[in-house]
């Protein structure tokens, strides 16, 4: 069963099964959330994940108009994941793959979204579905 945590270990999670999708997101909000060029997101059915600890939350509206709620550690500020009111994403929690305790190296993405914001010094990842915004 895959497990993950925040940097200080006060928030932990585990999930069963395989992610439904693994997506690299280049949207401007994900960049700011992680202070990086993109996020690596695991779409996990809500019923397959268990989070321990007391995450803090932050809400924002993405450029598509979808409302997102993030979950992060109040102690070390590690972003664990997010959820959205977008209809096709309601059954899922979106975990940040970088918070996996083991196995991140085997987490191969299947698509890139919001590629219109991909930074010019990153090339398209060959073999992945490409979407200008969300699929």
TrEMBL record:
Question: What Pfam families does this protein map onto?
Answer: GFA
Residues in coiled coil: none
CENP-V/GFA domain segment(s): 2-122
According to the lineage, what is the superkingdom?
Answer: Eukaryota
What keywords were assigned to this record?
Answer: Lyase, Metal-binding, Zinc
> PROSITE patterns under this entry?
CENP_V_GFA
Gene Ontology terms for molecular function: carbon-sulfur lyase activity; metal ion binding
Q: Which family does it belong to?
A: Belongs to the Gfa family.
UniProt-recorded name of the protein: CENP-V/GFA domain-containing protein
For this protein's source organism, the top of the classification is:
Eukaryota, Fungi, Dikarya, Ascomycota, Pezizomycotina
